[in-house]
Structure formats: structure tokens, C-alpha cells
């Protein structure tokens, strides 16, 4: 009897900690695209495809370098702010990490920040897909390895790259990006073969989710 009661209490607490997504019209990405009267934001379409359509609608020619930069930087700001809206900014808040675990279908959800961090870091996911899943409600695609994630990221048209650096990054996103950009594999003191393998994995990790666009 007591175990059932404790389980219900835990489920209730978890549901309270889950972030409730705001209406689509109020999200940073929707606000960014709404600036352009000639463009219609498709909320069921991926962020990068919406941006690709926007560039075509605005007819940002290669020669129009300054305009392309302004539009691109605005999109990158909105993408980062969208992450903050759905997943939070505080890397020391366990509810943010537990929410990430639930979105990434990690079960059971750990009850400590360190355990959550490790489970999230061990999960391979494209960050653009992660942001989009919060808006579309579709389960985010998970990958078995960094290699699979890298191949997927580079094969997408347009490619799904997440900004490496941005003024709007919160502590939580910085932790995720730091782990992706500079992951650590194995012990520090090992042979040259292991060092080469570690560097290969680090290179694959960097290519997977945070190459700039």
C-alpha cells in the first residue's frame, strides 16, 4: 500500500516539474518568423526548413551578404531562446534535467542532477530536433551512436546545425554544448592508438550537432 502511494506521489511531483510549453504563437521562433509579412511560419515543419524557405522568400542573394547575416543571426538567437523557453536555463536545477530526461525517453528518470547529466550526455540527439520536438509534440529521434547522429545531421537538407555560441545561451544549454563540443572518452594516460580514437570521436561529436551554419 505504501509503495503504491509513494509511486503516485512521485508521478504527481514529476508532472508538476514538467515544463508546460507556451502557445506556439508566443515562442521565440514564431516571433522571429512573424517579422516577415511575406512569410508563413509552418509550426509542424522543422526550424531549419522554415528558415530555408524564409531565405528563398526574402530572395537573399549571395551578393546581399549583410542582409543574409542579419537574418541568419536573428534565427540563431531565436533558436537558442526557443531552447531556453522549453527546457530552462539553469544547469543547477534538477527539474530542468529531469524534464530533458523525460523528453529523451530516459526511464526511470534519475533523482539527482549528476545522474541526470550522465544519462542525458549518454543520449545522442540532434539539438535542432530536440527544440522542434517541444513545439511539434513529436518524439525526438534518438541515435545509437555519435556516428549515426553525425551522418544524420550532415545528410539533412538543409543541414541541422545548432549555434555553437550565442549571447542567449543559459547554463543548461552551455553544459550540453560543452559536452558535445569537447566530450571526454577514456583515460587521459593511454597509448597513441587510444588517443587517436578519442580524437576521432571528439571530431565526430563536434560535427554531429554544433557546426555553425
Automatic annotation (TrEMBL):
UniProt region (Disordered), positions on chain: 1-24
Ranges annotated as biased composition (Basic and acidic residues): 1-11
Protein name (database record): Uncharacterized protein
Taxonomic placement: Eukaryota, Fungi, Dikarya, Basidiomycota, Agaricomycotina
Amino acid at each position: 500500500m505504501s509503495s503504491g502511494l509513494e509511486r503516485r506521489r512521485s508521478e504527481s511531483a514529476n508532472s508538476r516539474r514538467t515544463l508546460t510549453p507556451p502557445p506556439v504563437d508566443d515562442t521565440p521562433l514564431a516571433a522571429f518568423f512573424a517579422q516577415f509579412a511575406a512569410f508563413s511560419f509552418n509550426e509542424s515543419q522543422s526550424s531549419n526548413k522554415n528558415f530555408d524557405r524564409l531565405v528563398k522568400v526574402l530572395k537573399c542573394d549571395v551578393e546581399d551578404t549583410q542582409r543574409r547575416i542579419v537574418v541568419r543571426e536573428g534565427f540563431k538567437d531565436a533558436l537558442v531562446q526557443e531552447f531556453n523557453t522549453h527546457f530552462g536555463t539553469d544547469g543547477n536545477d534538477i527539474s530542468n534535467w529531469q524534464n530533458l530526461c523525460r523528453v529523451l525517453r530516459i526511464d526511470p528518470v534519475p533523482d539527482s542532477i549528476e545522474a541526470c547529466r550522465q544519462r542525458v550526455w549518454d543520449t545522442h540527439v540532434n539539438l535542432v530536433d530536440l527544440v522542434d520536438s517541444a513545439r511539434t509534440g513529436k518524439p525526438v529521434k534518438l541515435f545509437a551512436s555519435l556516428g549515426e547522429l553525425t551522418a544524420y545531421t550532415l545528410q539533412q537538407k538543409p543541414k541541422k546545425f545548432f549555434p555553437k555560441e550565442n549571447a542567449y545561451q543559459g547554463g543548461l544549454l552551455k553544459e550540453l554544448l560543452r559536452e558535445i563540443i569537447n566530450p571526454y572518452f577514456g583515460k587521459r594516460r593511454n597509448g597513441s592508438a587510444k588517443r587517436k580514437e578519442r580524437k576521432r570521436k571528439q571530431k565526430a561529436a563536434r560535427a554531429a550537432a554544433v557546426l555553425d551554419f
